[in-house]
Sequence to fold (313 residues):
Amino acid sequence: MSAFLLPDALPEKIAHILLHVLTALCLGPLIPGLINKVKAVMAGRCGPPVLQLYYDLAKLMRKRAVYSRTTTWVFLAGPAATVAAGLVAALLVPFGHAPAPVHFQGDVILFAYLFGLARFLTVLSALDTGSSFEGMGAAREVTFSAITEPALFLGFAALAKASGSLSLSAMLASPGFAISRATGPLILVLAGWLIVYLAENARIPVDDPNTHLELTMIHEVMVLDHSGRPFALVLYGASLKLLVLAALFVGPILPRTANPWLDWAAYFAALGLLAVVVGVIESITARFRMNQVPQFLMAGVLATAFAFLLQLV
Fold:
């Protein structure tokens, strides 16, 4: 990373920052498209285009929203916070082994609670509608997030112990992961974080983003009353979360080369591979019953907890 601090490397550093920002702004909607395409292929269908979400966002941005008479300004706080939190979090996590545009000791705490703040405001916007269905989804969201957060933080603790840093840029690009002692804990962290990734993004087997049955929804039921531009923000924010948490997942396992541009290419390939893996999981796995979801999430907590304990011995 020291090469990025040399004066003669300043133009290259600026180029990496610009690529980072463009990736965060533009690449997110591509990941749901890849997942849906993989699911369609696995089912023997043609499926929607990979760029379908871009078309949907453009269409929704041209539509006016319809608001219930019971809602207040809180109703719009959820969509706005989802996008804002995703964009700020994208500036904290490194892409392609290049240091994040914003990095400092302890930024991992800010990263985690940005999404916590977005979830809190999304829950408030769901409750602001006065709908019993959206209140039910909000209760489920809060309950399950209370289990996924320990898995996320225990994974951070294990990586911080291995890298000796509390900055995401150092934690996710530490050369210490190549040491055999850190390999086992890293595998456990990635296993736990894969569960967190599926749960936080409302994917099967925890939730189904394509369901239309209110009684079985978790995240999707909280945004049923959004339409037009606010709903476009909801969809875009969800795709941002897919991208940012994917960067968190693939960062520790990506090989580091002497050429930063090869690291970027490997990063984009890893994002595509993760989208394929999620699509395959959703194609071969049935959605869990609600009483089975906490058990699934606890498996992620146990995996990251064991990873942290292995780093202490």
